[in-house]
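Z., the sequence and structure:
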Amino acid sequence: MTTDEKADEATQPTGKQAARRARAAENTVDGVPPLARLFPLGLQHVLAMYAGAVAVPLIVGGALGYSAEDLAFLISADLFVAGIATIIQSVGFWRFGVRLPLMQGVTFAAVGPMIAIGQAEGIQAIFGATIACGLFMILVAPFFSQLLRFFPPIVTGTVILIIGLSLMRVAAGWIVDGSEEGAPPVNVAFAAGTLLVIILIERFAPPALQRVSVLLGLAIGTVAALFVPGMVDWSGVGEAGWFALVTPFHFGLPTFQVASVVSLIIVGIVIMTETTGDMIAVGEIVDKPVTRRRLADGLRADGLGTVIGGVFNTFPYTAFAQNVGLVSLTGVRSRWVATAAGVILVVLGLIPKISAVVEGVPRAVLGGAGIALFGMVAASGIRTLSKVRFDNKNVLIVAISVGVALLPTVAPTIYDQFPQWFTLIFDSGISAGAITAILLNLLLNTEEMRASRTGQPAFSAHDAVRGPAAAALVHPEAQGTGLIPTQVLDADRRAAAETDAAVPGDAMPEEGSGRMPPEPPTR
């Protein structure tokens, strides 16, 4: 062997090095993992979101008094459209889809308004309002970055907190299960047992199982309920087919009521705000910054998924935050993993037997899981509110918004003597609380928000929509990039630190001064 041949051989990568390089090439946003890894990675995403995905049709259908067969159909339609919406978001076409590993599912934010609409106007009005909401989202997507200033953490955090608190009544209803004399002790026992299983999984199980703790709690609680006569009713499973198409307008043609449409458009704005945060977060995780144009594409995909949902008998769709966390945990960046998960969801939606099994889960078990699931929604709102500087004005915004939102929850008949258009909007604590939070923030924080932006390109902590990443959407130094350059942020922090260093003493700023102590540098 010549000297040159030996040198060439020395520079050739070993088998292990080549494998590592191949895996690194696969682990990009546009890289496609081999099928042997693609399917289990996609299935992991499905399992992480499944419990939350099927909860909304169970809640809405149950509140409207639908039969087991109709509930199973709603679940099938939900999974089917969730898969289509996920594929649109991850694969993308033309100006639709952010082309990142994002999972789509029915939003909890619409539950309260949809129940109010369904009880007053019927489920056809829900589907009509859903279609109108989706069209609205598609139309305003290119301009939405200009609306983000109306949704700082004080608003979004309050709304998410209200959603979780309002849904807790649903969990209690599942535990009571229609009894007029209070919850049977056996129901309370199963709810508590399911909740305990979820807690134990979170405490002792490996991280991969912790991600599906709610789903495992439902499964274990249902298996235990099989030993109690009458707890599990799977009579509909035998009658359900192995394959059935999800037909559009299954419950009739949609109707479009103005008050119903307005109610869901308010929800649509909340959905777009949440999706914006999720897109920016996952873009940072996978090192593919979200530009204004890409953000608009993703929001259009949200709107298109919502329109398809209204056509196929389901509800508004949004990005699922728990799957963003899963991307961070696993480190798998490929958007084709989310696409594979979307395909799995479509297949599940075409198998009615699976939906019938989910519908047969005991209500008491659902109630226990619901306490954890809806409690996590409320806790997510509290986490968002942690970005807020709680002066008297912001405390008042949260206090009044939560109070107004809980009125129809604790006193369901409070607005019975009002016109129907009013009750369609305000009989849902979620939409009432959202409107209150938006208006109070505009009224009480306008001067502070204007002062905080004077001469400062970066937002202060209590005005940022989603922290520094989202501030880039209107940041003058980052136009066309979608992200604030790190050096700009660092320069802002250094300038703030030098200004504060010139102030003698370590006293906290006076209340109402608008000045915040400098934040430690973050990456």
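Residues 453-493, 499-523 have pLDDT under 50 and may be disordered. The beta strands are 104-106, 317-319.

Let me know what you think.
H.
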